Amino acid sequence: MKLSVQPRVFVFGVSGATWDVITPLANAGRLPNIRKLIDGGVSGVLASVRPEGDKHFRPQTAWPCLSTGRRPESHGILRYFHTAAEMQVPSIWQLISDTGRNVGTYSWPMTWPPKEINGFDIPCYHARDRRTWPPELEDIRNLDRQSAKAVLDREGDARLRLLESLRMAQVLARYNVLYPMAGSLLRSAARVAFSASAEERTLELRHAKQQLACGLFLDLCRRYQPDASAFVTFLVDYISHRYWRYHEPEKFGEAPAAPAIRNAVINAYIAVDNMLGRILQRMDSNTVVAFVSEHGMAAEPDSTEHGDWHYVINAARLKQFAGLDEHIHAHPIARWVAYRRDDGALIASAEVEKLQSLVVVETGEPLFQVFNQQHEIIVKFNLATDVAFYRQANLENLHIAMADKQIGFSELARRNDRRRSAMHAEDAVFILHGPGIKRGASLQGAEIIDIAPTLLCAAGIQTSAVFDGKVLDVFGS
Fold first, then answer.
1. pLDDT value, residue 188
2. Which domain of life is it from (predicted)?
3. What is 3-22 written as a DSSP string?
4. pLDDT digits (tens, 9 = 90+) for 3-13
5. CA distance linking residue 315 with residue 298, whole number of Å
6. How does DSSP assign 237-266, residue by residue?
7. Strand pairing partners for 291?
8. Of 269, 279, 299, 280, residue with least CA distance to 28
9. In whole angstroms, what is the distance from residue 236 CA to residue 41 CA?
10. What 8-state DSSP symbol labels residue 171?
């Protein structure tokens, strides 16, 4: 990347990263790139925030805090299903773009629907469709969605879907990713083909997807030369949620597992460190680097999920069973689904009522939480932890009723992965490194709303924007 008069800014976001894992691994020399940032910069605990009345630290509300310097009540993103259309204040990416500088974000949450900026924006998996900025980059989102489907299918179909993604060779070649990564992609494909278990295949696919994303981000930076850029990975967050029981087995009474499963959390952090190293090699010395997470992670021995498995909604089957309008299409996102009309029109209340009418026969409770957002219906399982029957029963034996017809729970749900064994915690991570930043220092009392004003200051940008956060005391010789 070319040198610039004002420092460039690069944010490496690692969803769910915690010092509880980073510190021992970095001290043991297993995270050399993160260790380099710590030793040459300022680091500390970053206090996350959550909307008033919410018991969880949610990425959907926390990442906008990082990018706007405002609390949830100020920036307007209060629920997990909100989008950038409901953001009430500008992000630092918009503020920097408005100065005429180039920006580039890859997988930063709450940028969908994408806005016009000087540079590029590839929204994260919360996006309802494949729109990007500029529009000609939509094939990247399409590739990402294909690999996401490969991850979601746990059996043989996952292998087929991975091959489908790899067959998009023209896309990978266009972004200078196919040939530099050919060796690692072939090794991943081989490990997937010969993995001993579905869990190991899932882990390998997750890692391969992140390596592809990193390669695509690097090529976009080569093309657009952003003055401010960001790359966010959810690898640590996902694996920590599902495999923490093997990271701290003494808290769960967990039996020994295969090495790939037992070391899944540690391997995720090592993979993140490797991606960071790839990116730092392409950054010039006039770059302020911020390594951040939006929340931490901690063991959850008493999971709020029932049974041994985490289930996701079979969105297509639900649409069919509920008899939704043919023009309504599903957009599965993590643990929930957004149903939207293909013409963007308002959704009739009758469609909402159909989904609200599904009940669990054995308990008489609604199967779903249903939110009518006018242009979309948000649907999420309503298997409340205070219903004793759910804690004791095999969920796959439940029956679902709608009017005079019934269907098995297992037809409307799909096993996705292990039951959650870790949950978001307040203490996140921050490291700042680069020109003008103190070296080898630690800082207490930082909040995620402090990152945006601090990065703008580091980039030498003055703005009339109002922040709830402060500029951190990280500057010095």
1. 65
2. Bacteria
3. --SSPEEEEEEETT--HHHH
4. 346 899 999 99
5. 30
6. HHHHHHHHHHHSGGGTTPPP--HHHHTHHH
7. 12, 431
8. 269
9. 23
10. H
Domain ranges in the chain are 8-301+423-458, 309-418
Report the helix count and the strand count for the chain, using DSSP H and E. 18, 20
Per-residue pLDDT tens over the stretch 361-388: 999 999 999 999 989 999 999 987 777 7
Does 134 sit behind a cis peptide bond, omega within 30 degrees of 0 on the bond before it?
Answer: yes
| β-bridge mates for residue 440, sequence order | none
Residue with tokens 């990082």: 66
Q: What six digits make up the tokens of 340?
A: 């939207």
Query: Could you give the angle at the alpha carbon of 263 between the alpha carbons of 261 and 265, nearest 5°?
Result: 100
Identify the band that residue 41 occupies on the pLDDT scale cut at 50, 70 and 90.
very high
CA distances from 170 to 107, 141, 165, 176 (A): 22, 14, 11, 10
- From CA 96, how far away is CA 228, in angstroms rounded? 8
Instruction: Output the six-digit token pair for 179.
Output: 């040939």
CA distance 47 to 450: 10
Question: pTM of whole model > 0.85?
Answer: yes
Q: Are 163 and 192 in contact (CB under 8 A)?
A: no
Residue with tokens 């929204």: 123
- The answer to whether residues 324 and 335 touch, using CB atoms and an 8 Å cutoff, is no
Angle CA 209–376–322, to nearest 5: 95
CA angle 472, 126, 64 (to 5 degrees): 20
* 152, amino acid identity: L
Residue 106: strand, helix, or coil: strand
Distance CA 326, CA 406 (A): 21
- Residue 6 is encoded by which pair of tokens? 């004002």
Q: In a 10 Å sphere around its CB, with 0-12 CB exposed, 13-18 middle and 19+ buried, how is residue 44 labelled?
A: buried
The tokens for 266 are 């540690």
The first and second tokens of residue 190, run together, are 């081989």
- Pick the range with the lowest mean pLDDT from 141-155, 183-197, 394-408, 456-470: 141-155
The domain made up of 8-301+423-458 has a fold known as Alkaline Phosphatase, subunit A (3.40.720)
